[in-house]
Design goal:
It is a single chain. The chain is an all-alpha fold. It has one domain. The chain contains 19 helices and two strands.
Length: 448
């Protein structure tokens, strides 16, 4: 009779009770953001070594590691805060903690230098916006796209009027003065951010009022930044409300289609889409953005808006094949999942002056700014509901009208967990901001 060979105790144990490899795999699947914990710790140790030796390079691989570690670390802190994690704390932390750390020189100077240089020299914010816009438009129901673009102008316009009236009345009653409240607090909030809003306004104010442009810019910038922060908080709150009142939200859709389902919002085979389709979609996004840049040089239309119109035209004409739409959806998902928080970290370090934000925290200014943005968002909610739009999603788009330009759109939609609304957010920010700046300067010229 043959004897049963002895089996080593380690091999006889179920795989789930042994550390290697199952236990190790569980550790690998523990992630900080999207980064496996062992990889995160390795990157942290390597970056610490480079920083301490003063040899932190500015090459793209090193900068990606810096942004990934910084962005997801800050976001994870926000995601673990009770209550605040439901109202956009991850996006706020990923943007404003780096800004504060950079201002107070807690971040090593070489980290600040490589992040700032990379962010400003590459303008990769626009690559992100391009991928998000093209992916979301190509995967959107055509009927919803057309009706949404036509309808969103109404809550934007009426909400802006309500915000101007209520915000200006609030500041005037608080003793800030009618003209100061209107031109230096309320209107800058809706001017489209810093580059497209605060700077043109300060230049125009300087010409009309014959004052120093730098001093005027210093007055305009704090309300722009605090208004954007308020919009982020409100967007996070609207996302939380949507989970409590699901019939008020389309989770990224402005209104239902005829069958209440997007045409290509989640293609069945998007996860297995051929890599060539994904690459083609990425190049298509770049090509459309460059088309927008050329359009800006020819007729002055902002590049993201020109790109947006081109993408919409291609979608409406059925010029995009199903495989390219699937690839665009994967590109959209990749950027929204993997790039958002590192991008916000870069924005916080390079483009968000902490001292200007803190300067806005005068109680009277804070009340006026919060009331202005709240009026804008509440009007978008109520008007959107009357127009048979999803009120929460309409309110989030109107909130982007008070955002800090493209950077504000990213933070607001991240807090709301509705990045697919980026095309409508760009309408609110770029076109709404341009109209606001133009009418503001015309009004100031007539009043002086």
């Amino acid at each position: 009779m043959l004897e049963r060979p002895e089996v080593p105790v380690e091999e006889s144990l179920p795989a789930t009770t042994r550390f290697w490899p199952a236990g190790w795999w569980r550790i690998v699947e523990t992630r900080v953001g999207i980064v496996p914990l062992p990889v995160y710790l390795l990157l942290l140790a390597l970056l610490a070594g480079f920083v301490s030796s003063g040899r932190l390079a500015g090459d793209i691989s090193t900068v990606i590691a810096v942004l990934v570690v910084g962005g997801f670390s800050c976001a994870e802190l926000g995601k673990r805060l009770p209550l605040f994690r439901h109202i956009g704390a991850a996006a706020i932390f990923a943007t404003f903690i780096p800004s504060a750390l950079a201002f107070h020189h807690v971040l090593p100077q070489n980290v600040i230098d490589v992040t700032t240089s990379f962010t400003k020299s590459t303008d990769f914010l626009y690559l992100f916006i391009s991928a998000i816009i093209v992916g979301s438009i190509f995967s959107m129901d055509r009927e919803v796209l057309v009706r949404g673009f036509l309808k969103i102008f109404v809550p934007l316009a009426l909400g802006s009027i309500a915000a101007i009236v209520i915000g200006t009345a609030t500041g005037t009653l608080l003793g800030l003065g009618f003209q100061h409240t209107l031109f230096f607090i309320v209107l800058p909030i809706m001017a489209g951010g810093v580059g497209e809003g605060a700077i043109p306004l300060s230049v125009g104010y300087a010409q009309v009022l014959h004052l120093d442009q730098g001093e005027l810019f210093a007055q305009i910038l704090p309300p722009v930044m605090l208004g954007s922060l308020t919009a982020i908080l409100l967007a996070g709150s609207l996302n939380f409300l949507g989970k409590r009142r699901p019939h008020w939200t389309g989770d990224g859709r402005l209104q239902p289609s005829t069958n209440d389902a997007p045409e290509l919002a989640a293609p069945e085979n998007a996860g297995t889409s051929d890599v060539t389709h994904i690459a083609a979609a990425g190049i298509t996004a770049v090509a459309l953005y460059l088309s927008g840049v050329m359009c800006q040089r020819i007729c002055g239309l902002p590049a993201p808006v020109g790109m947006l119109f081109a993408a919409v035209a291609l979608k409406l004409c059925r010029a995009v094949s199903p495989s390219l739409q699937e690839g665009a959806f994967v590109v959209y998902r990749f950027f929204s999942t993997a790039v958002t928080y590192p991008l916000l970290f870069a924005i916080g370090v390079a483009l968000t002056p902490w001292d200007k934000l803190v300067a806005a925290f005068n109680p009277l200014n804070v009340i006026t700014i919060v009331v202005t943005v709240l009026s804008l968002v509440a009007s978008g909610f109520l008007i959107g509901r009357r127009m048979h739009l999803y009120p929460i999603d309409a309110a989030i788009v109107t909130a982007c009208h008070s955002g800090q330009g493209g950077t504000g759109d990213v933070a607001i939609l991240t807090a709301a967990n509705r990045m697919q609304l980026m095309p409508f957010a760009q309408i609110a920010t770029r076109i709404g901001g341009a109209i606001t700046v133009t009418l503001t300067l015309l009004a100031l010229a007539r009043l002086t």
